[in-house]
Amino acid sequence: VGHIALETWIGAYGAEFQIFRERHPSRVPEDLGTMGYSGEEAMYVSQDVLQEAYGATGHTLQFYMSYNTSNYDAKKHFDKLTDLPAEDTTAMNPYAQWTGDLDGLVEVAGGYHAKCPDGRFWISPACRHNASKCIPVVSNRLGWLVDTFMFWSAAYGMPTAIGISLSVQLHIDHFTNHRSLTYWYRPDVRFAHLDPQPIIFPRHRASEWAQGNKRSMTQGSYIGKLVARELCFQAFNAYEFVKNMEFDLSEVQTQLMKVATENQSLEVVACEQWTTSRVALGQERFGPTGTAPGLLLQPRGSRFRLQM
């Protein structure tokens, strides 16, 4: 049975967590506060594409207005839609109310579905007249943020073709091997080696999102630290350590970059960072001790006392 769960995206599943809290008040874990950063979900563009566009024309593709077809032909920096294998993407509601784009929808009982002319990709209004002018956009197999991508594309004249990769590995392959835009979240190691950057949209407007209008930027998700309710009594030092532990998002992403580029495991990189930080602060390293209650447990069964 686990006693500590770090980096839990409670903010993304707040309603579900509250339901569990109400149904199982004696079993719900204790939240010891933020990890020090919020999770970021967005539409990402690779560093290579960013540098190419900026070097060639001075346009920054990290800004949403650079994609508007009235201002710039951003498509020339990306692959064609047909470059992505069609068999690798899955066959594909407030969107209609706030965008008025009924041509991009199929009416069904109780609402609408996205209209995919080829059965795979939704084509935005900006390139619906000619799909070869579309920039490929892929989400992962669960289709995260696809409806939001549709909103952004329609609201800001972005020429996009939005599809969903059939599997996690295909999602990685699509963005790694093709010049496309993608769904991603940080912190995460999946695309760290490409150093992609989120496209910046207008600041998040909670009141609009509450109505189903998703034209503004996504909001960072609260990421917490959950522990067993009895941990405070069973291992007070561990409890206090977790409670006071916070990280910076850029710091975490830098360490994940090492995992991606140096072929090291998460455990090795984390331990190296921990010991390096302690030496830099002039603190003693910690060493093996006995197995008395209250000490921290290392995965393989050894216990260590923190020399704070």
Give a nutshell description of this structure.
With 308 residues, the chain is α+β, with helices and mostly antiparallel strands. The chain has 10 helices and 13 strands. The chain folds into 2 domains: 41-210, no CATH class; 241-308, no CATH class.
Number of domains: 2
Portion in beta strands? 15-25%
End-to-end Cα distance, whole Å, is 27 Å
> What is the count of β-strands?
13
User: How many separate helices?
Assistant: 10
The secondary structure category is: alpha+beta
Radius of gyration: 23 Å
Helix content range: 25-40%
The H/E string reads EHEHHEEEEHEHEEHEHHHHEEE
List low-pLDDT spans.
284-308
Largest sheet: 8 strands, mixed
Mean pLDDT: 84
What form results from the Cα inertia axes?
A: globular
Describe this structure in words.
The protein is of the alpha+beta class and about 300 residues long. It folds into 2 domains: about 170 residues, no CATH class; about 70 residues, no CATH class. Helices cover about 30% and strands about 20% of the residues. The chain contains 10 helices and 13 strands. The strands form 3 sheets. Strands 1, 2, 5, 6, 7, 8, 9 and 10 form an 8-stranded mixed beta sheet that branches. Strands 11-13-12 form a 3-stranded antiparallel beta sheet, with no helix packed on it. Strands 3-4 form a two-stranded antiparallel ribbon. Helix 9 packs across helix 10. The longest helix is centred in the last third of the chain and has 15 residues.
